[in-house]
């Protein structure tokens, strides 16, 4: 094992989990943005992030189920279409040359980073119940696979902004994310493999170490300040990558 690489990505995983624990989203976004910035092909970056997330999302989903935070009807409405969308997105990602799709992935991350920034400044969608959770789940899974992250910002933000209960929405989305992550990870591993195990283990170990600190942070740091910091980080990384590809 390349121990230097392991410790670098343990730091990335720690940072990403601190962010995710404080906001309930963005582990995949932060991790994938950094991996792309370091030069990994989009398919490999997504496979690496999702392989690490299998464990973290499993623990998170089980915890929410244990504490009664999962609304099971919503869980199934999100999980099954989300898994289908995730597999389609993973197949698309695995069969398109990395340099061809890289600008689009970075543009997608830029949009999501902007969405996080808008949330930080109090912008919300209209307060109407989401009528088609399955459609939301499908597109969230599709874009999560292609972009290496985005399930939480799309699914959680949309459901909460349109009137969903915070507790049951976060619990149900987190539990459904495990199903989507397993589907995406299995598809990508079969097609592109995971040849960066030091990165996977680093992201995983960093995330596990950070989990209790994240639980503490969520009680002490202003949510809007954290969102603004995360959104700015993702936007800056994405803009830098797009500028490097264009010029």
From TrEMBL:
InterPro entries: TM_pro_TauE-like, TSUP/Inactive_protease-like. Keywords: Cell membrane, Membrane, Transmembrane, Transmembrane helix. It comes from the Bacteria. It is a multi-pass membrane protein. The keyword Cell membrane applies. The chain crosses the membrane at residues 6-30, 74-93, 105-122, 134-154, 197-218, 225-243. Pfam families: TauE. GO terms for cellular component: plasma membrane. It is found in: Cell membrane; Membrane. The keyword Transmembrane helix applies. Belongs to the 4-toluene sulfonate uptake permease (TSUP) (TC 2.A.102) family. PANTHER family: MEMBRANE TRANSPORTER PROTEIN MJ0441-RELATED, MEMBRANE TRANSPORTER PROTEIN YTNM-RELATED. This is Probable membrane transporter protein. It comes from Rhodanobacter denitrificans.
């Amino acid at each position: 094992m390349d121990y230097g690489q392991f410790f670098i990505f343990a730091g990335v995983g720690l940072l990403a989990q601190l962010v995710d624990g404080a906001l309930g989203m963005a582990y995949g976004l932060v991790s994938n943005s950094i991996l792309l910035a370091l030069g990994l092909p989009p398919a490999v970056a997504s496979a690496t992030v999702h392989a690490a997330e299998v464990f973290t999302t499993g623990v998170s989903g089980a915890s929410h189920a244990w504490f009664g935070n999962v609304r099971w009807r919503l869980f199934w409405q999100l999980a099954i279409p989300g898994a289908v969308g995730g597999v389609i997105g993973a197949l698309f990602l695995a069969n398109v040359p990395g340099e061809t799709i890289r600008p689009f992935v970075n543009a997608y991350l830029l949009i999501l980073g902007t969405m996080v920034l808008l949330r930080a400044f109090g912008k919300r969608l209209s307060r109407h119940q989401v009528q088609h959770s399955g459609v939301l789940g499908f597109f969230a899974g599709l874009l999560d696979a292609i972009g290496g992250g985005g399930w939480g910002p799309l699914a959680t933000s949309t459901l909460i902004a349109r009137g969903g209960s915070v507790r049951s929405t976060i619990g149900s989305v987190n539990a459904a994310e495990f199903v989507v992550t397993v589907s995406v990870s299995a598809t990508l591993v079969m097609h592109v493999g995971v040849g960066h195990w030091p990165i996977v283990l680093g992201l995983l170990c960093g995330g596990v170490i950070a989990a209790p600190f994240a639980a503490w942070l969520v009680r002490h740091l202003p949510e809007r300040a954290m969102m603004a910091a995360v959104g700015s980080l993702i936007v800056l990384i994405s803009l830098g990558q797009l500028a490097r590809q264009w010029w």
